[in-house]
Design goal:
Blueprint (H helix, E strand, L loop, with lengths): L1 E8 L4 H15 L3 E8 L11 E3 L11 H14 L3 E5 L3 H12 L5 E5 L10 H11 L4 E4 L2 H10 L7 E4 L20 E6 L8 H14 L3 E6 L5 H10 L6 E5 L5 H6 L2 E4 L8 H8 L4 E4 L14 E3 L4 H13 L3 H14 L2 H22 L1
Parallel strand pairs: 1-2, 1-4, 2-3, 4-5, 5-6, 6-7, 8-9, 8-11, 9-10, 11-12, 12-13
Helix pairs in contact: 1-12, 2-3, 6-10
């Protein structure tokens, strides 16, 4: 099978990282995979082959005819069986290129979040509706993500749909030490965007400090709201209690060294960082948003009603004072059984074969 994976940018973001890892496993299973990035970037992704950079322009993404033409040339030259759009502008570029230049190809959209949360007006909904009417299949990262996209675009019921979660890679780990002594270490991993709710992270941490002064917060990630959060930390006199790390390509050693991972997000699809924490035997406390409840429950972590900071703090405090070792064991066993990328790649292959089989039957 020939597969073209299209990503937004050569960047260390969840969609690009997962597409790279998935592509490597698909190659291991004997398939020919190429990767195409719309925009350049300076990250080093794990894909074992060459990533072709289109050089599209984000300033003219609605009229980027030259980029659409180049996509057409790449598709006609490679002749892939499956073309997968991995978030960002990838679906937009693929559909507009196909409409303008008339190339043939099966387009699979990977739905990794909750699109309904981003539809701000009638134009956005109508335009995205146009895009999704022209896809051949949608792979959603969680049942919640699939329900959300069907609620907003019910015509997709007639499309090939599948729920395929994100997976993990086994990696070599180095030993990392965080704050020592009696200090308990709390970690949050995520880009500084509104979805990740860093203001909520600060609120929860301040409440926790009222219960236990021997705690330290570790924030991993970059993003547009980072400077705002740094300023708030200074204003509240918390600089000695909070460490900012910026982007880290492999946060697993830090997650392993922490006493608890927190994720009070506003929007999520299926966050890989929860699976990473479970794999590293670090307890997780998270809001019940998106598909989080599909992997986190009372048997393997702490699932809190969205916005309930009081209960969130209570759960973090409980985990720090008395870790539930059975809960931690259950979480790791689940990840090893269901969420490693070798298995996830087989699930994608089965979906691709199902799509191709349905297309052949339609001929």
């Amino acid at each position: 099978m020939k597969i073209l994976q299209v990503i937004q940018r050569v960047q260390n973001r969840g969609a690009e990282t997962f597409a790279s890892q998935l592509s490597n496993h698909l190659i291991e299973y004997g398939h020919e995979v190429r990767m195409l990035a719309l925009f350049p970037g300076d990250a080093i992704l794990s894909f074992k082959g060459e990533i072709k950079v289109l050089g599209a322009s984000s300033r003219i993404r609605f009229i980027d005819i030259q980029a659409w033409k180049e996509i057409s040339e790449i598709v006609n030259s490679f002749n892939p069986d499956i073309i997968q759009a991995n978030a960002g502008d990838t679906l937009k570029y693929l559909i507009l290129s196909k409409k303008i230049f008339g190339w043939k190809g099966i387009i699979v959209s990977r739905n990794a979040s909750q699109i309904g949360k981003y539809l701000k007006g009638m134009f956005q909904k109508k335009f995205n509706g146009f895009l999704y009417r022209n896809v051949d299949a949608v792979a959603s990262v969680s049942r919640a993500s699939q329900q959300d996209i069907l609620y907003n675009f019910p015509f997709l019921e007639r499309t090939e749909l599948e729920v395929i979660p994100i997976g993990l890679e086994k990696k070599e780990l180095s030993d990392v030490s965080l704050e020592s002594g009696k200090t308990k270490n709390i970690i949050h991993v995520g880009g500084f965007t509104f979805e990740k709710n860093h203001q909520g992270v600060l609120n929860i941490f301040c409440r926790l400090l009222e219960k236990n002064s021997n705690v330290h917060l570790h924030l991993i990630g970059d993003g547009p709201l980072k400077n705002t959060i740094i300023q708030k930390v200074h204003e509240n006199g918390l600089t000695s209690k909070i460490t900012f790390y910026g982007f880290i390509s492999n946060p697993l050693p830090l997650i392993k060294a922490a006493d608890v991972l927190i994720l009070p997000s506003i929007i999520e699809g299926l966050p890989g960082v929860i699976l990473e924490a479970m794999f590293m035997e670090t307890p997780v406390v998270a809001y019940d948003v998106g598909g989080i409840s599909e992997i986190l429950n009372d048997g393997n972590g702490y699932l809190i009603d969205p916005g309930n900071e009081k209960e969130f703090v209570k759960a973090v405090d409980q985990s720090l004072r008395s870790p539930d070792h059975l809960m931690i064991k259950n979480a790791k066993e689940m990840v090893n059984r269901d969420y490693m990328n070798k298995k996830i790649a087989r699930d994608f292959l089965s979906f691709y074969e199902k799509i191709l089989g349905a297309k052949n039957c339609d001929k």
